[in-house]
Structure formats: C-alpha cells, structure tokens
Amino acid sequence: RTACKAFSMRYSGIELNDITAAPGLSVTVFLQGCPHHCPGCHNPTTWDFEGGKEFTPETMDMIVNGINAQNILRNLCIMGGEPLAPQNSFLTDMIIKEVKDRYPEVKIYVWSGYTYEELQLLCDSHIKHILEQSDYLIDGRYIEELRDITLEMRGSSNQRIIDLKEKI
C-alpha cells in the first residue's frame, strides 16, 4: 500500500452501511474531484480535486473491513465526484483490487459521468481493469432537464445501468 503516498488521492466520504445506492447493503465510497460540473448535481462539494480528505492506508482498511462487517457481505459502490477521471482512476482501481482480492464474490457498482462508449476510447489501463472487475457501471452525465426520481440508481433518464459482465 505504499502507492498511497505516491499520489495525492482524495475522497469525500464513506458510508459503511448504505441502503440507498444499490440493491442490498453497500459500502459506498465518494471520491473527490469531478471535471463534469453538471448543473443540478446533488454532490457539488465533491467537484474540487484538492478538497475532501486524504486517502490513507487506514482509509483502505476501513473500506475492506467494512465489506464484511458483522459477517454481512456488502456491495462496493464507488461514486463521486468522478471515480473514472484521470486523477481518480488509479485510486478507484486500487480500491477495487484490494476488495476483490479479499472478497472475490463482492458486487461492485461504479458511477461515472462518462459514458461506457467514452470510456472505451480512453487508453487508460486502470479504466480497463476497473471495467473488467466491476459488475455494474451507471454511466452518463446528470442532466437536470431529464431528472427522474423514480429511476433506480440514477438521477436522470439519460443515465444507464450497464451490466459489465454481459459486455465481456
């Protein structure tokens, strides 16, 4: 975990018993920094890449240990900010790798303002690994005019829930 010191990695918060992000119980990690700045975003405090808190080895331990706290296996949800921004892809990949190494059966959900198609065009080995290891990608920028509070795991109707295991 010495790689934590090689990058200025930031997160906004962690919810260890989240019942709102995905089906079932989840550990949800909110990464810090987002280039999209969508009007009407419900989390604008995560936009600044220098904001939030420093991600440390203790932060990683909190996430990994939280996945199976009280012997109840949780999903891992990663959102932001923008977890797939170039500034965050290393950290997102590292979190997923640590969790999958210990709990290979955990379901992983990643939210991104980038579309799946946009992500496929990036030459980023971390993004490629994230998409291979994750189960679901919720993609697309939030569009305030398309806001729909009845949608599962999404804020606007342009966003999609993509089963990444079907894409392999």
Topology diagram in text:
Blueprint: E1 10-18, E2 26-31, E3 53-54, H1 57-67, E4 75-79, H2 89-102, E5 108-112, H3 116-121, H4 125-133, E6 136-139, E7 160-163, H5 164-167
Parallel strand pairs: 2-4, 4-5, 5-6
Antiparallel strand pairs: 1-2, 1-3, 6-7
Helix pairs in contact: 1-2, 2-4
Structure description:
With 168 residues, this protein is an alpha/beta fold. The protein is built from five helices and seven strands, in the order E-E-E-H-E-H-E-H-H-E-E-H. It has helices spanning 57-67, 89-102, 116-121, 125-133, 164-167; strands at 10-18, 26-31, 53-54, 75-79, 108-112, 136-139, 160-163. It has a seven-stranded mixed β-sheet with strand order 3-1-2-4-5-6-7. It is globular and about 40 Å long. It starts with 9 loop residues before the first strand and ends with a helix. 34% of the residues are buried. The model is unreliable at 1-6 (pLDDT under 50).
Task: Kindly list the characteristics that best describe this protein.
single chain, 168 residues, alpha/beta, seven-stranded mixed β-sheet, 5 helices, 26% helix, globular
